């Protein structure tokens, strides 16, 4: 594991804040939290080659720790195995059942395939809220009510890193924090600092 000086971690935090990524992910995460109010109504789907497993796990954690049932995602899969557990064999047909009051969250680092775009369009027409975390897909972004684009050439924030920030932001309430299991408020920036420390490794004096 690479050991990073404390000054480097502080600089990384400041650079990330200066780019506006904290604000953008915070705003998108707030939209995700506000629209995901119906338990079971947050439909999370990726592309055939990129199912958002980690994001699903993070959102599930945020839902549980923050007591926000609507953030528990339903992971929609392209070809779920017939013998998979019930919560892991939800197929694309679930998107055809999307309705008003539900949120369809599309995560696509590469361009979304046409079959997905068609289902997204249908879901939007029946009143579902569409959110998109994309890598530059204009068609997908055009269908979304709220979108966050992470360009492929973005040097500071990876697509995976954006998913971490969005899930963390979704767990923050309107007052800028949320209650942890021990009762203390946990703001986004405090949790981002913990995330950076974990990724960078222990600091040395």
Automatic annotation (TrEMBL):
It comes from the Bacteria. This is Uncharacterized protein.
């Amino acid at each position: 594991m690479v050991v990073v000086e404390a000054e480097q971690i502080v600089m990384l935090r400041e650079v990330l804040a200066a780019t506006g990524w904290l604000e953008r992910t915070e705003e998108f995460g707030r939209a995700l939290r506000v629209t995901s109010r119906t338990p079971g109504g947050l439909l999370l789907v990726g592309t055939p080659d990129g199912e958002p497993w980690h994001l699903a796990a993070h959102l599930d954690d945020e839902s549980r720790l923050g007591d926000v049932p609507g953030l528990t995602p339903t992971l929609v899969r392209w070809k779920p195995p017939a013998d998979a557990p019930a919560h892991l064999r939800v197929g694309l047909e679930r998107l055809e059942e999307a309705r008003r009051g539900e949120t369809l969250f599309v995560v696509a680092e590469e361009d979304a395939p046409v079959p997905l775009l068609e289902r997204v369009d249908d879901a939007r027409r029946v009143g579902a809220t569409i959110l998109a975390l994309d890598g530059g897909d204009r068609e997908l972004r055009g269908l979304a009510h709220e979108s966050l684009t992470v360009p492929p050439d973005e040097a500071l924030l990876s697509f995976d890193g954006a998913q971490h920030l969005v899930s963390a932001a979704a767990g923050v309430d309107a007052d800028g924090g949320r209650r942890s299991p021990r009762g203390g408020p946990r703001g986004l920036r405090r949790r981002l600092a913990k995330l950076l420390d974990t990724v960078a490794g222990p600091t040395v004096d």
